[in-house]
Each structure stands twice: as structure tokens, then as C-alpha cells.
Write a structure and sequence with these properties.
By secondary structure, the protein is α+β, with helices and mostly antiparallel strands. Helices cover 23% and strands 28% of the residues. It is elongated.
Length: 183
């Protein structure tokens, strides 16, 4: 972590005023340049990337307690969940409103990594194709068996044909593979 981030975050989290180069805080809000990227609200810490998915924005936000932003295939993940950069409560993965629908949404691990041949399959992928429409029947079969699924697409930046994956929860991998192999 850069010293600028360390100083400005310490002041912000300590509710103190400070200006350091391109960052400032009044103890209530944190700005990078003139963009408010974090603020304290009654229910805790809220953050945004202020429509700037820059390395510096990510670095400042990552300095905050409870914030872990990483980038996967050009998309930001906040605390392990895809995030569009809009205002979110750090303690929750929604915009501060926990709904029954997303409270019951299963967790999917979609981790993959860059290898010489391109991106590897997501860890819990049980189906892969180059034709997106091929996923629908497999997805339907698994969903009818009570296995939630998530579609993923590899980001090729237009260089290669995208790969499409069907991912299941870690606990459902063996059951999903058995269903697909036996049908």
C-alpha cells in the first residue's frame, strides 16, 4: 500500500481532516481528486468507484478496512462479488438493502486464471462450450435437479472466440457431473 493511501485512510477512518496530494478527507467522506469514493453513513462505510475503474481508485479503496477489490477479466470484484462500482455498503453485497431474493442466492466461486492458452476454466465449471445457446439445455437439466447454476463468459477482448461456462456451487459439483454423465 502506498504511503499516500495509508495516511489518507488513517485520517478518514479516524474521522479527521487531511489533504494528501490528490486525496482528501473531512473525516466523513473520502475524495480522490474531486470524486467522492467513500463516506460514513449511519449504517457504516459506503464506497463507490465514482465511475473511475482506475488503479489509483482501486488502491485507495483497498486501503479501507473491510474492502478487498480485485480485478478479474476486466471486472471488479468487491469482497469476492462482482461489483459495478456503484455505491455499496461495505458490510453487504447489495446497495445496502438485503432482499429475500439475494439473501438466498447461492455463492459461486468463478475463479479462473490466465494461462498460456488463455483463461483456464472456472474452478467449479461443469460444462463448457463455444456456442452460448448450448448452455440452456444443460442449465435447465441441472436446475430441474435442484442445482443452482451461473453462466460465465471468458473475456477475450475480441481476440478469440469467447468460451461459455456453466458453474455450480462447490458442494454441487459431484452431483452435477453425475447428472450430466448419466443423462
Amino acid at each position: 500500500m502506498r504511503e499516500i493511501t495509508r495516511k489518507i485512510v488513517r485520517a478518514f477512518e479516524g474521522r479527521q481532516d487531511l489533504i494528501v496530494v490528490n486525496s482528501r478527507t473531512d473525516g466523513q467522506s473520502l475524495w480522490l481528486f474531486d470524486n467522492r469514493i467513500a463516506e460514513w453513513r449511519n449504517d457504516g462505510l459506503w464506497i463507490t468507484n465514482a465511475d473511475w475503474d482506475s488503479v489509483t481508485t482501486k488502491e485507495r479503496l483497498n486501503g479501507l478496512t473491510g474492502v478487498n477489490i480485485r480485478q478479474q477479466r476486466g471486472v471488479w470484484l468487491l469482497n469476492g462479488r462482482y461489483w459495478d462500482g456503484s455505491w455499496v455498503h461495505v458490510g453487504d453485497w447489495t446497495n445496502g438493502i438485503e432482499t429475500e431474493q439475494n439473501a438466498n442466492e447461492p455463492e459461486f466461486d468463478t475463479t479462473s486464471e490466465w494461462i498460456d492458452e488463455g483463461y483456464s476454466e472456472p474452478i467449479y465449471s461443469v460444462f463448457h462450450t463455444l456456442v452460448e445457446s448450448d448452455i440452456q439445455s444443460v442449465e435447465q437439466k441441472l436446475n430441474e435437479s435442484g442445482i443452482p447454476t451461473k453462466r460465465m463468459e471468458s473475456d477475450t477482448d475480441g481476440v478469440y472466440q469467447p468460451n461459455y461456462f456453466l458453474v455450480v456451487r462447490p458442494n454441487d459439483v459431484e452431483k452435477a457431473i453425475n447428472i450430466l454423465l448419466n443423462n
